[in-house]
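Narrative summary of target 7.
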Amino acid sequence: MSITLECQKRPENSKPNALRRGGLIPATLYGHQGAESISLVIPEKEAYALLRNAYVNKTKIDLNIADESWQGKAVIREVQAHPWKKTLYHLSFFSQG
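Modeled conformation, tokenized:
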């Protein structure tokens, strides 16, 4: 099964709570260029759909970043969510090359 996720680079000086109110989930991609990371935003509906079909540290995802013209394979490294409401706060991805 192939999962493709389209995301955008996070605007500078944007507040995470404001992004969530706007229907976007903050995310970070690590390991694409050594120690550097990219701050991203993912539409909320796509993030929930991704988590229904992917497993943390197991499922490879085709990640496309439109603003950076970067695409590659990544895995979900961490999911931050409210303990009982299950609302998403943040996703972390790690590049697989």
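The chain has a mean pLDDT of 88.
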